[in-house]
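Chain A, query sequence.
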Amino acid sequence: MKTNEDKNLEKLIDKMLENQKLEKPSLDFTSKIMQQIELSEKSQPMVYKPLLSKNTMVLVCILIASIFVISTLSPDSTSTSKWMIDIDYSSIFRISTSFSKTATYCISIGTLMLLTQIIYLKNYFNNKT
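Chain A, predicted structure.
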């Protein structure tokens, strides 16, 4: 049934297209298109502008470094780790969590490696252009 409807539809379309003339573009069609292409090429490319200025990035880095130094040098004897502060989540989650020294070292080293890669890739792509 469906193939019969498809054939009838195809015949109808063929009949409609038999009477249609082939349309031709205007004589200056190519030149108009080329002019539009030339105009689009003359537009200025987008210039990279960072979201945060260099001064802001330096301030953020100093802030993070100072928090890191203060947390490592604080003589908190109740903490299980010298690097992380124990936070009591028992009122929220009804559980108590703390990070082991190994987890703390892994997170710290992983963060430093990620930051190093970001800086390296940023310099690479800045020098490439």
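The first helix runs from residue 2 to 18. The chain is about 65% helix and 0% strand.
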